[in-house]
Amino acid sequence: MKSIRRELMIWILGGTTLLLIVSGLFLAALIRHRLLTDYDHTLESKTRVFATLICTEGEGMEVEFAGEYMPEFEAPVNPEYFQFRQVNGALIERSDSLGNQDLPFESGKISKTVFGNLPLPDGRAGRFVQISVIPRIEDEIELTPSPPPLATGPVGKPVVLTVARSREELDQELCAVYLAIGGTHSLLLLLIGLLVWRSIRRGFRPIGALDTQIRQYTPDALDFQIDLPDIPVEIQSIPGAINGLLEKVRASIARERRFSGDVAHELRTPISELRVACEIGTKWPDDPEQTGRRFADALEATLHLEQIVVNLIELTRCESGRALLRPVRIEVYPMLGQCWTQTATKAEEKNVRLDNRIDPEFVLYTDRDKFEMILQNLIRNAVTYSPIGAEIICTSCAGENGAVLRLQNPTEGLQPEDLPHLFERFWRKEHLDGDGGHHSGLGLPIVKALADVLHIDVQVTLERNNQLFTVQLSFPPGGERE
Amino acid sequence: MKILLIEDSPILLRSIEFGLRKLGYAVDGVADGREGWDYARLNDYDVIVLDLLLPRMNGLEILRKLRAAGKQTHVLILSAMDQVEDRIRGLQLGADDYMVKPFSFDELAARIGTLIRRRYETKSPGIQLGSLSLNTATREVTNQGARIPLTSGEYAILEHLVLNRGRVLSKDQLLEAIHGSDSCPGPNVIEVMVCTLRKKLAAQNEKSLIKTRRGYGYLIEQEPS
Fold first, then answer.
1. According to the per-residue pLDDT averaged within each range, which of A16-30, A132-146, B118-132 is highest?
2. From CA A247, how far away is CA A243, in angstroms rounded?
3. Which residues of B touch A (CB under 8 A)?
4. What is the distance between the alpha carbons of residues A180 and A183, in angstroms, rounded to a whole number?
5. Secondary element (H or E) of residue A57
6. Are A372 and A335 spatial neighbours (Cβ–Cβ below 8 Å)?
7. CA–CA gap between residue B222 and residue B162 (Å, rounded)
8. Contacts of residue B13 in chain A, CB cutoff 8 Å?
9. What sign for the dihedral angle of Cα B160, B165, B170, B171?
10. Model confidence over B118-174: pLDDT tens digits?
11. Looking at residue A140, what is its pLDDT?
């Protein structure tokens, strides 16, 4: 599994290692070059001094080498070596320490100073320098820093001098440098590694704490909350977002449970009515009047059940987005009258009246069936919850910002804190309605769901000391009168 | 036996009232919580059948007030709220039984019968009076195995006297036991029914079971002669 911690460690330490290696190599190369240059410079200087020993005498050359003055060439242990040659490679003079071995002769680089490495006759690692010099003429001592190109004639024939000596000291120095660089860099790497590890560990502590808390979450722990003090700014939004999401999930679960419980609850009463009516009718079938009464009760209960089921299906259809819309021109005034007629019986029982103040010219372009259902539910609701002898007032107004339809009815017992619940399914105000009346608590939720589908805004308010209930439907511009 | 039924569903109210009356109970039915509380506190019932979700005052509130007022009337809760915590709450507040909707009417009647027997401190539905047997569950009266056909009103009077044997019950008390508080029966209905009852019992050689106490009422003695 991927790990940020591991990735960071790998990349930081890997990068650091690479940098240290590169810098170490660079440093080593630099020092090596410096040391070698110094070594070669010393070797060359010595060789040039040595070159003054050869002189031209008549037609021949003579090397005025004296071992007692240059004992390093005759030392029995760790000697140095020299060899004089003509430019054609013919030997002029060589040190005895060479034995049978000759020093290298770079015939193609006569005019240059050539350095190189070689195995010395005694097996040690060595380094040689090859220069060309113009021998001095007898009794003339001239140090020629850089010999002119080969030439013969009045200044004499050039000769090639090769001097070699051990480079062990140089190598030891280099080794010490390499060890120092390597050791220092290794120690640095170790310390950096520790520092990085601690820093990452410390930096990841809040994330670890967050992870630990989240691991404690189980789906059954409905009250789970993430609580982390001292959240770093980089993850500050995460606990809040998670807690917010959990709260929404909790609310949704509670709503679903409540809804499932509410549906079951709402169906129990009409089913009870149906069952008892049938049981009583079966038990005492001999009384025709009572039998008729029982059948009527059974029918009423069945219709109540049907209403609940139809309402639920309509709600589900609206909320799932599967509602088909067929916008048509609607004259609202007569539609309201028709809806009122359907509730007339109940309204008469309570002596509730409708004052239809909608402008007869007020028209809408929307789905007829769904809008009619909205009006029916609103009217039914108003009649049910209005006190006896109340008047329901319906008004309209239209303008540039759209149209508004208002339905007002007197009410008792409703409080401002009840308003948000009015659109919850099956919610009913206690003390206003029990569970035996055929009010399913789906009327206003259906109004809201249908209004959402038709893009109508629904607002509810309480005025006049919570005794006047108003439902306002706001239509967007273009949906109202033509 | 007198029952108060507080249920806001008009269909259930009608159906249960009818059924219980057919079984010989006197039933007062109300559909409103506040009205139900008034009936409960002002009258004496053998059993109150109580819905919980009622308009104007919920059933648990009625129960709480009933017990706070010292009323020991047996209460059977009849509710669509079926969760265990709902049942526990109802029983803890003082209900004697809890039935969940939908329910069987026969079961309701049986549980009401149990509560009534409990009121009169008798566990068995069968009561023996000499050779006479009265079964409060089946609402039958037999004499040495032979069934004595009684109307529901006659049975109700006999049952009331038997369950209160040793006590004199007035005509009004007997009238309440067989009719609801709102009914207005004729003035002599008790005498007529007792007379008819005595005739039927006399046919089974039990004519002296029901005694008259002039000016007070009727009783069945603890140890019938």
1. A16-30
2. 6
3. 7-16, 18-19, 22, 31, 33, 51, 53-58, 80-83, 100-106
4. 5
5. strand A54-57
6. yes
7. 9
8. 436
9. positive
10. 877 766 678 888 788 888 878 888 888 888 888 888 888 888 888 888 888 888 888
11. 52
Question: Which value, to the nearest 10 degrees, does the dihedral of the CA atoms of residues B189, B190, B193, B196 take?
Answer: -110
Cα gap B216→A102, rounded to integer Å:
159
Complex ipTM: 0.75
**Cis upstream peptide for A135 (omega within 30°):** no
Strand partners, B146: B143
Strand order across the beta sheet in which A457-463 lies: A353-357, A391-399, A402-410, A468-475, A457-463
Q: What is the pLDDT of residue A231?
A: 85
Tens digit of each residue's pLDDT (9 = 90 or more) over A402-418: 889 999 999 887 888 88
pLDDT of residue A99: 86
Q: Which chain B residues are closer than 8 Å to A297 by Cβ?
A: 11, 14-15
Joined tokens for residue A459: 């607002």
Map tokens 């790497």 to a residue. Answer: A189
A414 Cβ under 8 Å from any chain B Cβ: no
Q: Structure tokens of B52? A: 């919980």
What CA–CA distance (Å, rounded) separates A242 from A214? 9
Name residue, tokens 């090639």. A160
Contacts of A385 in chain B (CB under 8 A): none
Is A269 within 8 Å of chain B by CB? yes
Place of tokens 């059977």: B76
Can you give the pLDDT at residue A149? 46
Coil, strand, or helix at residue B134?
Answer: strand
Residues A419 and A458 sit within 8 Å (Cβ to Cβ)? no
- Which residues in chain B have Cβ-Cβ distances shorter than 8 Å to A431? 33, 55-58
- pLDDT (tens digit per residue) in B182-209: 556 666 888 888 888 888 888 876 667 8
Tokens of A348: 């008469």
* Measured distance CA(A49)–CA(B222) in Å, rounded: 155
B29 — pLDDT class (breaks 50, 70, 90): very high
What mean pLDDT comes out for the span A463-477? Answer: 88
Amino acid, single-letter form, for residue A148: P
Query: Is A25's pLDDT higher than 90?
Result: yes
What are the structure tokens assigned to B173, written together? 């008390």
- CB pair distance less than 8 Å for B55 and A434: yes
Contact A125, A119 (CB under 8 A): yes
What is the predicted pLDDT for the residue at B64?
92
- Give the three-state DSSP class for A51: helix
For A156-236, where are the alpha helices, taking DSSP H only? 168-203, 205-215
Question: What is the radius of gyration, based on Cα positions, of chain A?
Answer: 55
- Asked if A471 and A412 touch (Cβ cutoff 8 Å), the reply is no
Q: Regarding beta strands A363-367 and A402-410, do their DSSP bridges make them parallel or antiparallel, or are they unpaired? A: unpaired
Q: Do B101 and A272 touch (CB under 8 A)?
A: yes
B7 secondary structure, DSSP code: -
Closest of B35, B80, B175 to residue A275, by C-alpha: B80
Please name the residue ranges forming H helices in B23-69: 33-42, 59-68
CA B20 to chain centre: 9
